[in-house]
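Q: Could you fold this chain for me?
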Amino acid sequence: MRDAPQTPDLSGLLLHWYDRHARVMPWRVGPAERAAGVRPDPYRVWLSEVMLQQTTVAAVRDYFRRFTDRWPDVVALAAARDADVMAEWAGLGYYARARNLLKCARAIAALGGFPDSRDGLLSLPGIGPYTAAAVAAIAYDEAATVVDGNVERVVARLFLVETPLPQAKPELVRLAATLTPQDRPGDHAQAMMDLGATICTPKSPACGICPLSQTCRARAEGLQASLPRKTPKAAKPVRQGTVWALHTPEGWVLERRPDRGLLGGMWGLPGDGWDGSPGGPAPADADWQDAGEVRHTFTHFHLILRVQVATGQPPLRRGEAVPPPEFSPASLPTVMRKAFDLARAALPPV
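A: Sure. Below is the predicted structure, expressed as structure tokens.
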């Protein structure tokens, strides 16, 4: 078992660095504001953490601003139409998160507000250990240990953990807990994230300006750039399929996907079952033309989609023609937007 490095107040060194170098983010209450008595809004903390799962800060900023402009608190989000939230989420990926976001918002609204502890937050639908710890620490100053990918990297290097991920996760969480202070645990959590994002980066870590460099065991051994180690991933399989884009005088023919499953609850072009669903035939008998193919990568597979396009007003056997006021291409999930853009480019201007 590894013990914490013998250092004078390691968290204190980190917080001193954070007070001067904290990243400015639209959902964050910075150190100066905290010192002036401003409290983080648990709604904004929770929303940002859900959005940031498997997504970059740069990608999330605009989505977060749009969400909070439209739904400024959890009660407003709880009252939102599912379709509106899914449309705003389009492009962030992992659409199950958006469905869980709504379920959780409605549960919180029914409770009359956010639980103020990690255990209470864990009782909510769609909130797992990481998000519960992050909201508890940042919004409520609970000494909960928050471990994301950036924190895993910092801890693996600081303690010289050579066990590869994901096997090392329990040990990294235990070691991170030895660093979590009772005072300012939320700022500590954000400082660890910022350190990993800006200094203790995956490649070419900037050890010369790291506030913890003198206590980093990986740096002492010259191994910082090689940690954390990772178990090689199996190659992703490649799936192929077809979608049909039919433009009628009433609008494009679309299908609302089932609530559960890949891209659940989103509008999409009718497909042949490339996603593992039963699929079906083309939405109508029409003069289909091949518009080309689009490629997209999901978490567990690569996808190559052939896009067939047609115009006219044949009888439909599946889908519905959605008029322009009710459909915006921006509301499509990314893979469907790629296919739609290819189809639209293959037709005369409409």
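A (continued): The mean pLDDT is 92.
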